[in-house]
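Hey all, sorry for the wall of text incoming. These are the two entities for the joint prediction.
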Amino acid sequence: MNWTWFHRLGSPPSFFRFAERLAPWLMGLSLLLIGIACYAGLFLAPPDYQQGDAFRIIYVHVPTAAISLSIYVLMAVAGAVALIWRMKLAEVAVVAAAPIGASFTAVALITGMLWGKPMWGAYWVWDARLTSELVLFFLYIGVIALNSAFNDSRAAARACAWLALVGVVNVPIVKFSVDWWNSLHQTATIMKLGKPSMSWPMLWPLLMSLAGFYLLFGAALLRRMQNQLLWRERNTRWVAEWLKEAR
Amino acid sequence: MTKRQQRMMTVGALVLGIGAAAALGFTAFRKNMMYFQTPSDLIAGKTPAGAKVRLGGLVEQGSVTRGDGLTVKFRMADCTNVVNVRYDGILPDLFREGQGIVATGRVAEDGAFVADEVLAKHDENYMPPDLADSLKTDTGHSCAPFKSAMQSAMQSSQ
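and here's what came out:
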């Protein structure tokens, strides 16, 4: 197999230009998908037989919660690549992904609480799913804090990579907590083996919203990595040239 | 071994080690991670008398009787056992017969469970009302979300 494209993408200037081209497309498509999904979720999908209209928060809650886990896995994989192959771009990805992950986790926690009060009768309970998702939030905060504790950005990224790897054990715990233990939180509706336990008119806006939020994450990650690269390589010629070009 | 392979081994050992530690830890504390116990656990005497516990199960069909004010009596079931529950307070919107709930309280002297908080446990099914109506004939609510801590302890010790 020919790996030259991979090595080329791994060099900061070419990745920067690649991201510059790709990010606007991802952002535009994500806003389009999220827009349609929100409209469909609020107006086209029928109310739930038990929860009525309150279930509609699912169109934000489930995508953000699912992606909060995906981002952590991505961070851990990038962390392993950064530690083993010392790839600069992977270091940048670890550091750039953490604040996005923290934001998605926070949105998932907050929308869940808003739903929990009317449906369960409580904003917060200390069951396994909620507690482990809160731990995930603290892990993201830990990576952000660790990164800012170092002066040298390469040493900082490597420390973050270790934390990302250690914390990845929490991801299956969040995902399977509702199957392994009794919890107040319901079990998986779509991300499971077998047929989704949701009727199609309610399901398609959810899948669309999920795709839209993934693209939003992609766009945010590319933009944050670009910023990180500009800062790290601020003394190089390609940055100087790009800044001249952009002006 | 090259430096890179060494680093690969370190990363692999770290992830595997922490995974194994977490797996062992959580298996040992399995019962304590349960958010609630089931009526079967309660009847098997797994909980000390008078201790505060959370009880999870389904509200038995046709068992809800309302008294003065907010007082309500019902039976909670988990497919094998049933417990009488008394509660005086505001019920969540989703509370209804056949619904999964989690009640916090203690066992009174007469053997009934006196709850001081009732939360609704929603299941993973989402559907519009007309579809739910057409399914009603063969309903039968699932007991799957209510794992007996006792049974799971037995399974894991086998």
